[in-house]
Structure formats: structure tokens, C-alpha cells
Design a protein that fits this description.
elongated; about 0% helix
Length: about 120
């Protein structure tokens, strides 16, 4: 399974970016897809997740500003980020859960895409 994030870049505070995560190569259904981020010198932080059925969860720091969605037909997840703040600066990672069986649901991670927000 290959997981590839795209869409990172540099923006001014208050700007917007849209990240995409494509999962390819799996012969099994894709389960929950999620975004995490890690700023330099800080621990990894949960950003948002979306189940195959469309249940959505957000981290407290992004609620009301970020919107997660997915296109199951394209095996792609999106993160629309609005009203970006300098503290959103981080490398954003996509995690994809593969639903092989009820007892076997491995996770796969992408290499990350960098988001920089200037004040």
C-alpha cells in the first residue's frame, strides 16, 4: 500500500490550503483515514479522521477551521484548511487503515507534506 500526501506549501496567516492523501495498491477496503501533524521539536498531534462510513473527528486545535472529507471511489482523503495560523506550521501526515479482517487492520503512513504559515 502506498500513501502519498500532496498540497502542502507556504501561506500567510489567515490563508487556506487543501491537502490530499491518496492511498493506492490495496486489494482490501480502506477503513479510517486520518491526518496527523508534527511541528519541529513537538510531539505528533492528531488533526482529524474520517471513517469509511463518514464519521468525522477533529482535534481541538483545528475545530471550526479545518474540514476533512474523502472520496471512497478515488481512495483519496482531503483536508481543507482555512484561517491558518502560524501554530499550524508542521509536517502533515496521512494515516490509512486497511480493513483486511476484524482482527487485522494495519496502518500505513505517508511521507508527509510540509505546511508553513507566516505571521
Amino acid at each position: 500500500v502506498e500513501v502519498v500526501e500532496t498540497g502542502g506549501g507556504s501561506v500567510q496567516s489567515g490563508g487556506s490550503l487543501r491537502l490530499s492523501c491518496l492511498a493506492s495498491g490495496s486489494p482490501f477496503n480502506i477503513g479510517t483515514m486520518a491526518w496527523f501533524r508534527q511541528a519541529t521539536g513537538k510531539q505528533q498531534e492528531f488533526v482529524a479522521s474520517i471513517t469509511s462510513g463518514g464519521n468525522i473527528y477533529y482535534g481541538d486545535s483545528v475545530k471550526g477551521r479545518f474540514t476533512i472529507s474523502r472520496d471512497n471511489a478515488k481512495n483519496t482523503m482531503y483536508l481543507q484548511m482555512s484561517n491558518l495560523k502560524p501554530e499550524d506550521t508542521a509536517v502533515y501526515y496521512c494515516r490509512v487503515n486497511i480493513d483486511i479482517s476484524s482482527a487485522n487492520q494495519p496502518d500505513f503512513w505517508g511521507q508527509g507534506t510540509r505546511v508553513s504559515v507566516a505571521s
